[in-house]
Amino acid sequence: MKRIIAAILATLMLVACFAGCSGKKTLVMGTNAEFPPYEFVDDSGKIVGIDAEIAQAVAEKMGYELEIRDMKFDSLITAVQSGNIDFALAGMTVTDERLLSVNFSNTYATGVQVVIVKEGSDIVNLDALEGKMIGVQSGTTGDIYCTDDYGQDHVKQYDSGALAVAALVNGQVDCVIIDNEPAKNFVKANAGLKILDTEYAVEDYAAAIAKDNTELLDAFNKALAELKAEGKLDEIIKKYIPAE
Ligand code: GLN
To answer: How far is Cα 239 from Cα 55, in angstroms, rounded to an integer?
Structure first.
């Protein structure tokens, strides 16, 4: 009986391997797929976007398969640290605070924290934010800076930018502070909103990699530099952010 079970198990493992093993090793990327155009779920349920395509191109250069895992943005750093994922690519800003926990690759894009308001809002500049209720995505730089500048009582955290924007539409917050490209997407998807013509913070995006995995950091940077030199990086960005 034991032998039969062992034989069945062995066969099952073989079948699983034929289905899943292509002979290549897998690189696991963590992201929060609610941040268009960097990462979002398309109509077929696939995670696509600038980060997904850059990661795919980097993995190909390194000879790896890519697997993308969707998780909450504020779980990504811990997932990198614990080795649950090999790297996080999530429109993530390089900050001194995060550098205490992870390493960052070279940067591949610039992000700007902007303010979304309802059309006709009395919030016309950053000074007018004082005393208002600001919606943010939990754990993001928008969340961290606003909490510092305007106080915890004036910041409402949501699991995603889309939920923060829905709260703005419903009048639960007076504005949303979020990265400029997702902001443009959210404003396009919701009538009656606009982005203030003022920049709250300018930041660099990079991949977060575990401190002890310098081998991956070096390989990632090398692949990224090649993609840049080949014009592939620009091509991917232009595909998702058409020139205005
Ligand atoms: N750039 C912001 C940050 O790093 C937001 C990223 C995101 O929400 N995916 O905090």
So the answer is: 15
| CA separation, residue 200 to residues 72, 121, 141, 224, 241 (Å) | 24, 17, 11, 28, 21
- Give residue for tokens 């062995």: 10
Count of domains forming the chain = 2
pLDDT band at 19 (very low <50, low <70, confident <90, very high): very low
98/216 same-domain check? yes
The CATH number of residue 155's host domain is: 3.40.190.10
- What's the CA gap between 52 and 32, in Å, rounded? 11
Q: Is 70 exceeded by the pLDDT of residue 17? A: no
Residues 11, 71, single domain; the answer is: yes
Q: Do 72 and 135 fall into the same domain? A: no
Residue range 113-126, pLDDT digits in tens: 999 999 999 999 99
Domain of 198 in residue numbering reads as 111-202
Does the CB atom of residue 200 touch ligand 1 within 6 A? no
- Share the mean pLDDT of the chain: 93
SS3 percent helix, strand, coil of the chain, rounded to 5, is 45, 25, 30
Residues 136, 96 share a domain = no
Quick check: 30 and 84 in contact, CB under 8 A? yes
The 10s digit of each residue's pLDDT in 52-105 is 999 999 999 999 999 999 999 999 999 999 999 999 999 999 999 999 999 999
Domain identity same for 210 and 95: yes
Atom index in ligand 1 nearest the CA of residue 144 equals 10
The whole-number pLDDT of residue 242 equals: 84
**CB-CB neighbours of 153 under 10 Å:** 9
Residue 32 near ligand 1, beta carbon < 6 Å = yes
Q: How far is the CA of 244 from the centre of ligand 1 (A)?
A: 23
